[in-house]
Structures are given as C-alpha cells and as structure tokens.
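Entry type: protein chain
Record version: 2
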Amino acid sequence: MHRKHIENIRKYLDDLQETNLPWTRWQVKQEGDKNWENLNYEPIWAEKAEYRRKPDEIKKEISFSKPVTKELKPGERYWTISSFSGEFRIFKAVWTNHYADNSRLEEGLIHLTEEAAQEHLDAILSVFKPFEKKRVKHSL
C-alpha cells in the first residue's frame, strides 16, 4: 500500500460499512492506461495505479416511436425536435431537401406525427431533468 492512497482507503472503508462488496463502487487505472476499469475484487492499492469511486450514473429505460429513416417527398410535412435558446420544442416543418432537413433526418429527429415527436421529446426531457418541459408549437 502506498501513502498516496490514504484518502481513498478511508472512503473505501466508509463503503465497507454500507456493503459487503465495496469494490463494486470503485475503479482502477493502471499506469499508462487511458481508461478506468471497474474493480472485480478488493483493491491492492498498487503504487503505480490510480483508484477512484465510480462516477454516479443514471440508468433509465426510455422508449418512443422510431423516427423516420428515409428522405421524405418534397413538400411533405413532418414534426421535429429542436432547441431554441436552450428550450427543447417540437415544431412542424416541410421537407425541402434542405441541409436542415437532411441534418434532422441523420440525427433521427423527424416524425410524421406530432404525437410521435412529442413522445421523443418527452423521452429526451426525462433524461435531461434540468430542462423545463414546455410544449410550444411553431408551424411553417
């Protein structure tokens, strides 16, 4: 054990008070490695390794209607999602084969119904809680 790990060892001991598997909350990065690896066993507190608690994660299952995957016909109306001034919105647009249309298609943001677009937006907002959900419609 190396002195550089003292603070982490204290945190590890705190975790041991809460669980019999404290290493499941920790990661290690070996000297020269770029990526952190999850621990599968008690740490050995190697001098040339770095240790940290795993970053907090949010795991959530979401679902929404599949976005359109093929170009629409010129003049065909669709619904999409965008962010104006940091606020997510759905709005109606018309396919003109413009760069913006193709960009939305590539990003998976085109739906043929308002309901499907709203489902998609609700799924996005369920992950990004800091953004306030507002239904604002803009038509072309």
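Comment: The chain has three helices and six strands.
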